[in-house]
Write a structure and sequence with these properties.
By secondary structure, the chain is of the alpha/beta class. The chain has seven helices and eleven strands. Helix 1 packs across helix 2. It is globular and about 55 Å long.
Length: 239
């Protein structure tokens, strides 16, 4: 049996101290990896269904036969790994603002680290996703899907500066990074937000907010998250 608690890494960041820790859940007889930002839970290996659903729902919304994908937010790697499982995927670029999270993957400190780091289709980039999506220069090439999992919701932000992204202007910027028919998809820890859905509908041709339910082994009940999708005007493209 492992120790009941182990702090694997701890580092200060501009957003606060971030840590990777392993905790033994005696009630479930299993080890769980957790990412903490200060006292706030960012991610747990106990709950990965939402991150995987983000990829499955997002990529299912595009009919392109070949996919180049950008993922905003690396976390424990489940969104990116699910993208690499799609046989259409040609490339995955994962952008994360916290260098430590990328280091954990490259050093094999998290279960999917070796897989993501060792796949030639996958690039891990240290940078600000929101700044890169709105930057005019250099203009990034267009991709078929942008999958976002950073803030808890369009209103519950890790950084108040992210708020401008969840507007018509911010979503228009991300739409400009998509090929015709490309898809923007986003995870939220809250129920569907009609106001944000209306904002997305001003930018994208086809929009949806899907409530995803999954078992919660801690409570014995169900938990849920929301996956938003918006498809840009135009048809399939494999450019």
């Amino acid at each position: 049996m492992s120790a009941l608690f182990e702090e694997i890494d701890y580092r200060p960041t501009p957003l606060g101290a971030i840590s990777l820790r392993r905790r033994r859940l005696l009630s479930l007889d299993r080890d769980v990896l957790e990412v903490m930002l200060g006292d706030e839970h960012l991610m747990s290996s106990l709950f990965t269904e939402g991150e995987i659903a983000l990829t499955h729902i997002g990529l299912a919304a595009t009919e392109a036969p070949v996919l180049d994908v950008v993922v905003g937010g690396l976390g424990l790697g489940y969104t990116a790994a699910a993208a690499l499982d799609d046989p259409r995927v040609r490339s995955v670029v994962v952008i994360d603002a916290i260098e430590a999270v990328i280091d954990w993957h490259r050093q094999g400190l998290v279960p999917l680290g070796a897989r993501l780091s060792g796949d030639a289709r996958c690039s891990l980039v240290h940078g600000d996703f929101f700044a890169l999506m709105t930057a005019d220069e250099p203009a990034p090439r267009q991709v078929h899907a942008v999958l976002l999992d950073i803030d808890h919701s369009p209103r519950a932000l890790l950084n108040s500066q992210n708020g401008a992204f969840y507007s018509v202007a911010g979503l228009t910027d991300v739409a400009a990074r998509l090929v015709p028919g490309g898809v923007f998809a986003m995870w939220s820890d809250e129920a569907p937000d009609p106001e944000f859905e209306a904002t997305m509908a001003l930018v994208f041709e086809v929009c949806a907010a899907k409530l995803v339910e999954f078992p919660n082994p801690l409570t014995g009940g169900m938990s849920s998250c929301t996956i938003y999708t918006g498809r840009k005007r135009g048809g399939p493209s494999a450019t």
